[in-house]
Design goal:
Cytochrome Bc1 Complex, Chain A, domain 1; alpha+beta; about 15% strand; 12 strands; about 475 residues
Length: about 475
């Protein structure tokens, strides 16, 4: 299970890669040419998207369901993730483990992830095995039939996963507490993997009910990227997915996030922390939530503030003041609900987190007051525009990005328009988006610190500012 809030891992990785090689991209270069993306909808409502890429005789088959951790019923957090695991435990025709063995026997790779907004399953495999990929996924969509004993064992697997990835990971524990503080009412405030006490109460019947409600062709998107054409994928999709019936899908009803009117601070002490760190998350707009027109400027703002060694925060904190060893800035604008604009920094040994925070705030104030230079904006745009070129190089990267775009309701051609959309963003729009987003009352500032947490009921140590929380 990967914790994915909006942008796919591939999307972020592409940006990181290109931050160090801005000269590699030139509009009109041969790499920019690509066959058009095709899409169609089967009679049962299944959406199919084809992304031709004939460089390698292989395909990436992804099936995305418009259901995720944000749709977990109250008191049953972690159900979407538990269901994802149970998709590998057997159907009417597939025995436990047979799905994975079938893919491995053909030299393929398979996995899945649950995010707040969607759940996705992928198979990367030789082109000639695309019929097998569709046959397997169609069988799993049709229905689950796991052995109750296997269901009980798999629940222990996800509980152990939480212990290993969350309970024993101070950064992950802190992340949960920050989300819970940042989003007070929206379902993004609970973890995708679930709270331990609620995971322990999940049942096989919960999984089957969840599957029967949401896993139908009219709630899914199949994306095939690789050495394929539209007509051949359509013929296979109609053969394997076409016979599956559609079904009424319950509306996604999520609590709205109330106005954010107070700055929040969270402190996490943990004996496993060797290097303290500082961060701040701001709740903000996404491409489809809140002030949607500010999403593209926020992508650029993220690049300007923390995208590489020439960004504002890296230059100020790492190169000039030498008070931080690293700076990270991220904006996850592909979310159905509120997005996050995140800033993080690790101080140089001997430098206090207060010094780092003041330096970050000073750079934010400078950006809000003076904006950015034409040279800074040109470089940021070049890097962001390059994504739409380099995403075509890999087998599955484009399929992942397309999946997120479609989950958010963007059309299949949105990514091809990405360079023009980014180029059209004005300096004034970037500054205004920064002023609307980088507001302390919309944020949670957090620190990860070494040492034991306060015992339950104990008073905060002398000097801890009023209103700060010491979080276990």
């Amino acid at each position: 299970m990967k914790r994915i809030k909006g942008l796919s891992a591939a999307f972020g990785a592409l940006l990181s890669m290109m931050a160090w090689a801005p000269g590699a991209f030139a509009e009109g270069s041969p790499q920019a040419a690509a066959e058009p993306v095709e899409s169609y909808t089967l009679e049962n409502g299944l959406e199919v998207i084809v992304i031709p890429n004939h460089r390698v005789p292989a395909v990436s088959h992804m099936i995305w369901y418009r259901i995720g951790a944000a749709d977990d019923p109250l008191g049953k957090s972690g159900l979407a993730h538990y269901h994802e695991h149970m998709m590998f435990q057997g159907t009417e025709k597939l025995k436990r483990g047979e799905y994975s063995r079938s893919v491995a026997d053909k030299g393929g790779d398979e996995n899945a992830f649950t995010s707040y907004d969607a759940t996705a399953y992928y198979i990367d495999i030789a082109k000639k095995e695309l019929p097998l990929a569709m046959e397997l996924e169609a069988e799993r969509m049709k229905g689950l039939k796991p052995d109750p004993a296997d269901a009980a064992k798999e629940k222990e697997v996800i509980i152990e996963e939480r212990r290993l990835r969350i309970e024993n990971n101070p950064s992950a524990l802190l992340d949960e507490q920050v989300n819970a503080a940042l989003f007070r009412n929206h379902p993004y405030h609970w973890p995708t993997i679930g709270w331990m006490q609620e995971m322990e109460g999940l049942t096989l019947q919960d999984v089957l009910d969840f599957h029967n409600k949401f896993y139908h062709p009219n709630n899914a998107i199949v994306i095939v990227s690789g050495d394929v054409t539209g007509p051949e994928v359509k013929a296979l999709a109609e053969k394997y997915y076409g016979p599956l019936p559609s079904a009424p899908i319950p509306a996604r009803v999520w609590n709205e996030e109330p106005p954010q009117n107070a700055e929040r601070r969270v402190y996490m002490h943990h004996v496993n922390v060797k290097q303290e760190s500082w961060g701040r998350d701001y709740a903000t707009a996404s491409l489809v939530y809140g002030k949607k027109d500010e999403a593209l400027p926020l992508f650029l703002l993220s690049q300007l503030m923390g995208g590489g060694k020439t960004s504002r925060l890296y230059t100020a904190l790492v190169l000039e003041q030498k008070i931080a060893t690293s700076v990270d800035v991220d904006y996850n604008g592909l979310t159905l609900g509120p997005a996050e604009f995140s800033i993080g920094a690790v101080p140089v040994p001997g430098v206090s987190l207060d010094v780092v925070e003041k330096a970050v705030d000073a750079e934010i104030a400078r950006a809000l007051k003076d904006g950015f230079t034409a040279e800074e904006i040109k470089r940021a745009k070049t890097l962001l525009k390059a994504q739409s070129v380099y995403a075509r190089d890999g087998l599955s990267g484009m399929a992942r990005i397309m999946g997120w775009l479609r989950i958010c309701g963007m059309d299949k051609d949105y990514f091809s328009r990405w360079p023009a959309l980014i180029e059209a963003v004005s300096p004034e729009q970037i500054t205004q988006a920064a002023r609307d987003t980088l507001v302390l009352t919309h944020s949670v500032t957090f620190e990860l610190l070494p040492g034991e947490a306060l015992p339950e009921g104990a008073s905060a140590p002398t000097g801890l500012p009023v209103g700060k929380e010491d979080t276990k």
